[in-house]
Specification:
Layout lengths: L2 H14 L3 H12 L4 H8 L5 H40 L20 H15 L3 E2 L5 E2 L1 H4 L26 E2 L4 H10 L4 E10 L10 E11 L4 H16 L5 E6 L4 E14 L2 E4 L4 E11 L1 H6 L8 E8 H9 L12 H7 L16
Parallel strand pairs: 1-4
Antiparallel strand pairs: 2-3, 4-5, 5-10, 6-7, 7-8, 7-9, 9-10
Bound molecules: 3,4-dihydroxyphenylalanine.
């Protein structure tokens, strides 16, 4: 058969090929092991030498041209399929968003309050420090001057990991130690994070959140601590607050104080700033000289203040959330009610909460 006829035949059959499978069929028919063109090439050996040369040339040209035609057609079909696919998946981006979808997500009150705390302390020049949730006895207790016999070390409060692999930190105070070991005074920072205790009722959950604060320098005194806390609490509660500093005891501070804010309870709701009641909001004090010494800071040259507050508790008070456990239920209705609009980042200038 004339090679030109073969070529035209192939081109004609390609015109009716619609899928990659159709094309493959044609390719096998012509170029496969037992294909027509393959057969022609194989038959060259049987031709007399004088014909072999011209025929060989012709067959090879035919082979190249048919290959090219098949490949071109295959590419066109691939493109067509791709375009059809794009059209099928077309999205009309000019359509209005389904009602509610755009504003459905909410920021958890704990995240919001965490951001508020950081914004307030950043405005006072406090950096941010972090430490691990899984701590050693040394950082969680010993370096903080909490003796072996101290009740806080009791198995009932602390989650110990099996096989002496450490414990879940019971407070954020170990971050004080890690930061003091690393930093050269003067410095000041806050350290927010998760904390864990074996406790569960309306106001306690096994996992909760604290924020630690610390300032160390050559001349830090109790006056700095009082002013810092006053400024922090008034900015946080967005109202004037009256504080009461009560003597207390923490092994890592001397003196140690607990801080109450003046409040009143109206129909089960707590109002900060007025009234005749007092509500405890945090613990604080001047860093114990032994604790400074444990971290390589000379207590004759430097002193510091420290404080620790429960973030969950601050959030409950500020936003009137009655049950701590509800923070961790993952109830969508709850987050719709108590959550915050995602695009609002709390700042002192822009307002803390939207
Ligand atoms: N770590 C204490 C607790 O969990 C809170 C605390 C009290 C932290 C006094 C401090 C501090 O830094 O000075 O109860």
């Amino acid at each position: 058969m004339d090679t030109n006829n073969i070529k035209h035949e192939v081109i004609e059959s390609l015109k009716t090929a619609r899928t990659a499978g159709d094309i493959e069929e044609i390719r096998i028919r012509e170029m496969g092991k037992n294909g027509r063109i393959s057969g022609l090439l194989k038959s060259l050996g049987e031709l007399p030498p004088e014909e072999r040369k011209t025929a060989g040339k012709q067959y090879n040209i035919l082979k190249t041209e048919v290959e090219k035609a098949i490949e071109e057609h295959a590419a066109a079909i691939r493109l067509e399929a791709r375009n059809a696919e794009i059209l099928r998946n077309k999205v009309d981006i000019s359509l209005p968003v389904t009602a509610g979808a755009a504003s459905r997500g909410r920021i958890h009150p704990l995240s919001e309050v965490g951001d508020e705390l950081l914004a307030i302390f950043a405005s006072m020049g406090f950096g941010v420090e972090q430490g691990p949730d899984i701590e050693s006895e040394y950082y969680n207790f010993e370096a903080l001057n909490i003796a072996d016999s101290h009740p806080a070390r009791d198995m009932h409060d602390t989650f110990y990991l099996p096989g002496n692999k450490g414990l879940l930190r019971t407070h954020t105070s170990p971050v004080q130690i890690r930061a003091m070991e690393r930093l050269e005074p003067p410095f000041r920072f806050v350290a927010p994070g998760r904390t864990y205790r074996r406790d569960s009722d309306q106001t306690h959950t096994p996992m909760f959140h604290q924020v630690e604060g610390m300032a160390v320098g050559p001349d830090i005194h109790l006056g700095h601590l009082k002013w810092t806390l006053q400024h922090f609490l008034e900015t946080f509660f967005e109202t004037e607050v009256e504080l009461r500093f009560r003597p207390s005891y923490f092994p890592f501070t001397e003196p140690s104080l607990e801080v109450d804010v003046r409040c009143e309870r109206v129909e089960g709701e707590i109002r900060i700033g007025t009234g005749t009641d007092w509500l405890e909001v945090l613990g604080c004090g001047m860093v114990h000289p032994k604790v400074l010494g444990n971290c390589g800071i000379n207590p004759d040259t430097f002193q510091g203040f420290a404080f620790g507050a429960g973030i969950d508790r601050l959030a409950m008070l500020k936003y009137g959330i009655p049950d701590l456990r509800s923070f961790f239920d993952g109830d969508v209705r709850w987050i719709q009610h108590y959550g915050f609009v995602p695009l609002h980042a709390p700042t002192l200038e822009g307002g803390l909460a939207p």
